[in-house]
Design brief:
The structure holds two protein chains of two kinds. By secondary structure, chain A is α/β, with parallel strands linked by helices. Helices cover 45% and strands 9% of the residues of chain A. Chain A contains 19 helices and nine strands. Chain A is globular and about 105 Å long. About 2% of the residues of chain A have low confidence. In chain A, 44% of the residues are buried. In chain A, the strands form three sheets. Chain A has a five-stranded parallel sheet with strand order 2-1-3-7-9. Chain A folds into three domains: 66 residues, no CATH class; 176 residues, Rossmann fold, CATH 3.40.50; 67 residues, Irregular (Cytochrome-c3 Hydrogenase, Chain A, domain 2). In chain B, helix 1 runs parallel beside helix 10, helix 3 packs across helix 11 and helix 5 packs across helix 6. The model of chain B has no long low-confidence stretch (mean pLDDT 85). Chain B has eleven helices and no strands. The longest helix of chain B is centred in the first third of the chain and has 24 residues. Chain B is globular, with a radius of gyration of 20 Å. In chain B, 76% of the residues lie in helices and 0% in strands. By secondary structure, chain B is mainly alpha-helical. Classes of the chains: A alpha/beta, B mainly alpha. At the A-B interface, helix 19 of A face helix 1, helix 2, helix 6, helix 7 and helix 10 of B.
Chain lengths: 368, 225
């Protein structure tokens, strides 16, 4: 029996055709799909091009013909914040449809079942959809002491990850913890936590970092996987270029103040009230790649820098160790202590004096 | 290549080590200079040493930069004089009054200060870079400069020029990703810090020693410094 297509499933769940097309438009929007540049550039005849450059039509065609993509969602050393952000997302239509109607098969936080039942459901899903499911991971994997710092159902996180990764078509790490290790990996990293892409090397791994990941970015990328059946184009840190192509600084609404050299010096001075640049208050916007400044949060209401707080760089690797949140970005990450500086000065002086004395003694003996 | 990791290295351990080498190197040079010793100045005192020191600094800071023709260098090699002056002024303002640089000082010293507005620093940086290029060309063109320039001089020019040009491109977000330029800028600065004590760039400290000593000697002899 052929598998039920996404379209058929939605219609069976009471979605009208009009509703379906609307949904396709939303999905295309979520993917940032204004047109299909690869097809336009491919040199196809114009007649074909015309049809295929309509993103909604393209999405509709894909969803009509493709079966749903099963998703298995694992949580390790995390705070469930990425799930919470998704579940409370301001665009519940997309999130609900993408996650519930279309895909989700197993999710520890959202699952009604618990304990052995839930584990059994996961096992069955993994067996049934072997080689086809998308594995979403939230949270880092602690490796110290045989993985003892995170176990579920008596199995360590690393074993669970390896087990689930074996049958996955692709892996999506959501949030900074799963992507780059996040908070658990912060110095001194007591549990030896590590991001997923360092642990699974034989499967395509896509990172959607952030703390939490922007819900619309997550669903947008998931939608892209549904429509195209493959992961989107990634940058050097395996992040989708569509959403992580620009820095916060590049798209910041306070950027003109940076260019003009107008900076807030504290959180309640005149500059802060005027909405000036937060660079001096430690903003990490120039080195942080994410879609906050364009997609924003809470349905486009605002994002940290707009609300008056500097960017902390939560979509970058090791951002917890990237200097203080309120320390200027240009400041060095590590400074020698006063004792070290004193010791260095003393060593220099002693070596200098020693060499001078030796030279002097040598000259004296030569004279004699 | 993972520029984030490179940046972390250049801002972190590499910077720390460079700073320690810089400090140890400078005290080493200082000890070597001091232990050279100097012969007792047996000239009978005809005036105040302090007055001589004050005068020499006033002349160096207020007269020489603004009334160039009293200085022989200006008459013989105007490019060295003018471009050199602009370059030093620019470097000083950029390093101490550029916003990003002040934040570095703040993190090292624990206190900050007001900075010069970005457009001013930006234009000054452009002029400083042009001055440096003029100075380099002058070294090739002017026969005397050419004669006294060796590998060390060109290397000195390069290690100062690299932080300047990478910083300028970074501040303008040109061509490369920000973290790439930031990494290159920091690496260039770290190399400069290590290179300073072992080169004539250390004159940024020792200049003041020689000015003070010569000023005092002139003052004692009651001659105009």
């Amino acid at each position: 029996m052929p598998e039920e297509t996404i379209y058929r499933r939605l219609i069976n769940n009471g979605v009208s055709r009009r509703g379906f097309l609307k949904f396709c438009g939303v999905v295309a929007g979520a993917m940032g799909l204004e047109s299909l540049p690869p097809l336009v550039k491919s040199g196809l005849p114009k007649s074909l091009n015309k049809v295929k450059t309509d993103p909604v039509g393209y999405v509709a065609k894909a969803l009509k013909s493709k079966p749903r993509v099963p998703v298995i969602w694992l949580e390790f050393s995390d705070c469930a914040g990425c799930t919470e952000a998704l579940a409370r997302s301001s665009s519940p239509t997309v999130v609900n449809l993408v996650l519930n109607a279309i895909s989700i098969e197993y999710h520890e936080t959202l699952s009604a079942a618990a304990g052995f039942q839930a584990e059994e459901a996961k096992r069955q899903a993994m067996k049934k959809y072997y080689g086809k499911y998308l594995l979403v991971v939230e949270g880092s994997v602690p490796l110290a002491d045989g993985g003892a710092y995170c176990t579920i159902g008596g199995k360590s996180a690393i074993d669970l990850l390896k087990e689930a990764a074996a049958g996955a078509a692709a892996i999506v790490s959501t949030g900074n913890c799963a992507a780059f290790g996040g908070l658990p990996k912060a110095d001194p990293n007591p549990t030896n936590a590590e991001g997923i892409w360092k642990l699974v090397t034989d499967k395509p791994v896509m990172n959607i970092p952030g703390c939490p990941a922007i819900p619309e970015v997550f669903t947008g990328t998931l939608a892209q996987f549904l429509v195209f059946g493959a992961l989107p184009e990634l940058d050097s840190l395996n992040r989708p270029k569509t959403f992580y192509g620009n820095t916060i600084h590049d798209r910041c609404l306070r950027r003109p103040f940076y260019e003009a050299g107008k900076f807030a010096l504290s959180f309640d001075d005149e500059g802060a009230r005027q909405g000036w640049c937060l660079y001096k208050l430690g903003c990490k916007g120039p080195t942080t790649y994410n879609a906050c400044a364009t997609m924003k949060w809470q349905g486009g209401l605002s994002f940290p820098v707009q609300s008056g707080h500097p960017c902390i760089g939560c979509s970058q690797p090791d951002f917890w160790d990237g200097g203080g949140f309120y320390q200027g970005q240009s400041a060095p990450l590590s400074r020698p202590t006063v004792a070290t500086v004193g010791a260095a000065a003393a060593v220099g002086a002693v070596v200098g004096a020693g060499l001078s004395a030796a030279n002097r003694a040598k000259k004296k003996t030569e004279k004699e | 290549m993972d520029w984030n990791a490179t940046l972390e290295f250049a801002r972190g351990p590499f910077f720390r080590v460079a700073l320690i080498i810089f400090i140890a190197g400078m005290t080493y040079r200082l000890a070597r200079v001091l232990f050279l010793g100097w012969s007792r100045d047996k000239v009978p005192s005809n005036g105040s040493k302090l007055a001589g020191v004050v005068k020499t600094y006033l002349k160096a800071l207020l007269i020489l930069p603004f009334i160039p023709w009293v200085k022989n260098t200006f008459n013989k090699n105007a490019v060295t004089y003018l471009a050199g002056g602009i370059f030093h002024l620019g470097l000083f303002v950029i390093i101490f009054f550029g916003t990003a640089h002040m934040l570095v000082w703040k993190s090292l010293l624990g206190f900050g200060w007001a900075t010069v507005s970005y457009p001013v620093v930006d234009w000054l940086a452009a002029i400083t870079i042009i001055s440096m290029l003029a100075l380099l060309v002058n070294r090739f063109v002017n026969p005397v400069s050419k004669m006294i320039s060796g590998a060390a001089e060109y290397l000195n020019w390069l290690v100062v020029f690299l932080p300047m040009i990478t910083g300028y491109i970074m501040a303008h977000h040109l061509w490369f990703r920000y973290e790439t330029l930031f990494s290159l800028h920091m690496i260039a600065v770290d190399v400069l810090l290590i290179w300073i004590p072992f080169s004539r760039i250390s004159h940024f400290v020792f200049y003041f020693f020689s000015r003070t000593i010569h000023g005092a000697q002139f003052g004692k002899r009651a001659v105009t410094p």
